[in-house]
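Pasting as-is:
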Amino acid sequence: MKQVCIIGAGSSGIVAAKIMKENSISFDCFEKGSDIGGNWRFNNDNGVSSAYRSLHINTNRKAMAYADYPMPDDYPMYPHHSHIIKYFESYVGHFDIRKYITFNTTVTNISQQPDSSYIVTLDNGEAKKYQYVIIANGHHWKPRFPNPPFKGNFIGETIHSHEYKESAQVKDKDVLIVGIGNSAVDIAAEAARLHTGKVVISTRSGAHITPNWIWSMPFDNLANAFTSKLPLAIQRLTLSLVLWLARGKQEDFGVPKPKRPLLSEHPTLSQDLLPLSGRGAIKFKPNIKEFQGKTVVFEDGSSQNFDILIYATGYKIAFPFLKHYLEFDIEESNNIRLYKRVIHPDFPNLFFMALLQPLGAIMPLAELQAKWIAKIVKKECVLPQKEEMRHSIEEDAKKLHKRFDESPRHTLEVDFFEYKNSIEKEMKRKQ
């Protein structure tokens, strides 16, 4: 019996495999598709990738890279998804990981045993026993739609941003995009640059639009270990001043002023949205009131006809292989209560990776989680008692709700440096 089962060979699964290997921990890794890369592989045959042809990363390559394997210097600072896949392939080749991955294999069920081991059932009917399971199936693959749905019926084309792949899908069409997150503004900008139809974004509360670049450097370089320790009010004041110096008020470009303060929502990054909006190529409307055929009526009483409606309304966290456990039926709330975002107190030896939405890059944090898991497996560090874990989970939830509104969009938010420090502290926990 091998010690560990890793589910998924995306950015988290491959780093988990690398770290298990270098710690001499025996493992299997199962991947639904025929190759590595997960969400970053365009047209991935696993059927769940959300990548579109024009997708670029929104965190700079230096911040996003794994700790011991930097991205090539000849990559652009914000690489295209094709660069990211090449980077993953190079990483897997360099650390000789591919031979440990079983491709075209789906995990269909996981069942906990009395001795805290797990039986993992595969889609070929095979069942394998492992002492530990690492779940790295991602959280950007099951589309979320408004619930309850808007009144009426829209008779034009309707898709989720998950289904958006090519600009041809919006060419010669009047486009309405619901949402103002990163995918929403990327798609809106791409549609607007075609100049073949009207482009409108519908948003309930708006968002603070953050540039990728400022003063010839990546904007996310402004976040660091020092600034993360400043009082939130000081962070907000500093960031608002920087944004004002960088581009003035976003409302002057026609982008609505957000209802929530800075750093109380996941940032929306775009170098293109404000100029395109300022030219009138992208318009904004409030929340939808109802549909009347191809006509969309908004809450301000205005109405407009559209050919295609794109819901950029986020994703549900889903674990189809844990369907027998009520604790993990959290698709509507997205609120999974885990100790340090990794461990459920009632399910020892079951680990969740990259269930995070950091104000910063996710891959280095997933890498750190894998290192922590390896130490637990090797008994080089210990976990606190269940009650202490539950108390910590509740305290983290209170802290989260104090800063972010209680919505499925914000259940996974963490501050990069604060979270990094907390995992590093856990790795040193002894009896």
